[in-house]
Amino acid sequence: MSNNNNIVWHDHDISKESRAALKQQRPCVLWFTGLSGSGKSTVANAVEAKLYALGRHTYLLDGDNIRRGLNARLGFSNEDRIENIRRIGEVAKLFVDAGTIVLSAFISPFQEDRDRVRAMMEEGEFIEVFIDTPLEECERRDPKGLYKKARNGEIPDFTGISSPYEAPQHPEIHVKNSAISIDACADIIIDYLTIKGYIHA
Predict the structure, then answer these.
(1) Can you give the pTM of this predicted structure?
(2) Which of 108, 162, 163, 178 does the annotation list as catalytic?
(3) 22, 46, 83, 172: which could form a disulfide with 186 (CB 3.0–4.6 Å)?
(4) What is the pLDDT of residues 126-152, one digit of tens each?
(5) What Cα–Cα distance (Å) separates residue 127 from each residue in 16, 31, 74, 121, 141?
(6) Can you list the domains of the chain with their CATH numbers?
(7) pLDDT of 40 above 50
(8) How far apart are CA 197 and CA 195, in angstroms?
C-alpha cells in the first residue's frame, strides 16, 4: 500500500481558470439527488442536451453507468454507498478542474456524503439539485421494477423502503418533478446557471 506522505500534488502550467476561459463557461458540479425513479437521470440528460445546444462543455456521470466500471465492486451497504459517492466526488472534482460543467445523477441518500463532496470543491462549484418526487410517485413509475422487488424483500438496503433518504434542506435548486414536464425541469436549471453566471445563453 502506498504511503500518502510521499505523494505531492503536482501543479500544471495550464490552470482551471485557463481551461474554463477557453470553454467560455464557469465550471461546476450539478449534483442531482433524489429517490430512485424521481427523474434525476432523465432531467440531467435533458439539461445536458440544452447545454450542448448552447455550445457548453459538459459531462454526465450517471449512477448505474459508474457502477458498471469505476465502482463495479461496490455493493449497496451504507459503507459502500459512502465510498461510491466519495469516488464520484473525486472524479467530479477532476472534471471541474478541466473547466467542465459536470452533471452527477446519484441517489446519494446521506446529507453528510453530499456535504463531503461539496467540501472538496471551491465556493460556488457545487450546486445541489434536489429532484423532489414523492415516494408514491416514484413507486408508481418504478421504471426498473426495483420498488416491487424491494417491497418483496428481494433487494435489501433499498433507499426509501428499507434504507433512509435524507432530503436536502437547503439545495441551490429545488425541482418538484411530479407536476411539470422534463423540459420545464431542465429550464429551471438552465435559468439558474444563466442568472448565476455559469453560462451565457
Answers:
(1) 0.87
(2) 108
(3) 46
(4) 999 999 999 999 999 988 899 999 998
(5) 18, 6, 26, 10, 26
(6) 27-195 (3.40.50.300)
(7) yes
(8) 5
